[in-house]
Design goal:
The structure is a homodimer. By secondary structure, chain A is of the alpha/beta class. Chain A has helices at residues 47-57, 72-84, 133-137, 152-167, 180-183, 186-197, 218-228, 266-279, 284-299, 311-320, and strands at 13-17, 21-26, 37-45, 62-69, 87-94, 100-106, 112-117, 139-145, 171-175, 201-202, 232-236, 242-246, 249-253. A nine-stranded mixed sheet of chain A has the order 5-4-1-8-9-10-11-12-13, with helices on both faces. The longest helix of chain A is centred in the middle third of the chain and has 16 residues, at 152-167. The relative contact order of chain A is 0.16. Chain A binds chain B through residues 24, 32-43, 69, 71-73, 75-76, 79, 97-99, 101, 113, 115-117, 120-121, 303, and chain B through 24, 32-43, 69, 71-73, 75-76, 79, 97-99, 101, 113, 115-117, 120-121, 303. Strand 3 of chain A pairs antiparallel with strand 3 (37-45) of chain B.
Amino acid sequence: MPNSNAVPSRPGTIVAMGEILVEIMATRVGQRFSEPGTLIGPFASGAPAIFIDQVAKLGSPCAMIGCVGDDDFGVLNVERLRGDGVDVSGIAVLKDATTGSAFVTYREDGDRDFIYNITNSASAQLSVANLRDDLLSKCGTFHVMGSSLFSFRIIEAMKRAIETVKTNGGTVSFDPNIRKEMLRIPEMRDALDFILDYTDIFLPSGHEVTLLASATSERGAIDELLKRGVKEVVVKRGAQGCSFFDANGETHRSAFKVQELDPTGAGDCFGATYISCRAQGMDVDTSLKYACASGARAVGVKGPMEGTATFAQLDTFLQSATE
Amino acid sequence: MPNSNAVPSRPGTIVAMGEILVEIMATRVGQRFSEPGTLIGPFASGAPAIFIDQVAKLGSPCAMIGCVGDDDFGVLNVERLRGDGVDVSGIAVLKDATTGSAFVTYREDGDRDFIYNITNSASAQLSVANLRDDLLSKCGTFHVMGSSLFSFRIIEAMKRAIETVKTNGGTVSFDPNIRKEMLRIPEMRDALDFILDYTDIFLPSGHEVTLLASATSERGAIDELLKRGVKEVVVKRGAQGCSFFDANGETHRSAFKVQELDPTGAGDCFGATYISCRAQGMDVDTSLKYACASGARAVGVKGPMEGTATFAQLDTFLQSATE
């Protein structure tokens, strides 16, 4: 059993920075975007935005830094986050940009196809000019999503934010959340590597554990990560549960059984719940239980941010859940 | 009655150049994009694309120059235009861009609200590199939509295309189709003014007649335009019909009575039908009759490009239509 005293999370505001999007969903499995059909949306989305919304729902003080356009997609996101308790003062509303969007459709084989307006959206304007030192210096945990690192401007801002957080005694959590196209760009791989150097809590999906390591086995990669200075590694395995590793050992949990309606955002909810619970002083086992409940609950709800939950909702879920 | 011998259209390919988009439509009047709802789409769109699709449906040889992303929105547009008979060899498929999109919702008062991804889309990459001299040198009529002139790169390409067309004896038709934001940018107004210098057939909406003239009355502006070298002015007045002016006189038509379902694209269909009929040697009266039928038919169909029609469909419409 890992030593829960080794936990690097500290109380204080949890801050996420990065893309804020809307998602438009096809309604039929197998629907293509090469012909008209019925869609639903816009839904609030963006991995760091989903993360911070879930953090807010669990009652942790939190803030978001990012950019939206001066349009109703931006209003949708900002009002949603504000309503759920996120400090949105770090979200800039840009006159000459459009809020990012993602169109998603599910294939018969369960895979998803996307059309993105992200790198050409307001979210791509995020730069060091958007950094809020007042928010970052009192930050307990700064959370980075790998999906956010799609421009050099953003990478530069992320590096500066991490430096401010670290200098002031905060910790960094990192969900690689990698789009495979990113690893083909050497500078993107470098950026992920840089973030990892400052990471206290690493939250990869199963297939991502070895992506940034020289070891080819999961165990070898975990050892490398811990040696490198990562204090906790939490591996998200979807329907196969999750695993926790630190210098003192490891622990595993199976997932709760649920019918998958929409996996988008489930990993973000899992990570947010883990970070939030740890920041609130809960031990690893309790934090993992809530994280699994949060992820499981999220896959049962349509819409990327629609599955975020309060502790009351997670407790209700846990009462009738089976592993 | 104007002298139809003054007509500047000549046989030969009709070419349009500019934005290619998809449109996503809200399904309920008053629906806002600040909350989730049911949408339909994507529908093929973009003013010059709608124009050229309508030209193709009337059997005129035609081609489109523009850019789409390497995505299903691009496939939708290219296959639609190709299927309707447009030469799509001038449409570039860009790897690193997303096909443009527009979200539209109707207010209770009949006005429309949009969220655009156009200036940040593949369509914004259009430049002189996309010009196809083989298409332009054999071009009978080159059609310009003012909505396309949203970047200096595109304006430069448009100027060069017009020079090639004119040098080879082709004519230029111009629908100002102005978004009001554009006139606030002095360079955009200059660009519209430049296009007007080369325009043979000018197709403004009623409120656009005086926008680029020093005269404040419609009649004064028309006289200015004709003196400036425009050979035909066709004023589109929606439900109030249309007016034709040339050096020899004027003629007016009332509109056909239809129930308005979706006005998007109706002006483009009107213009395309007028240009196509004239290029096929029809007289002004017949061309205006078909143009009015085309516009009227288009407002009765949902989807910006869904209302384009063949002569057979226009003749069927005319058999039961009342003015």
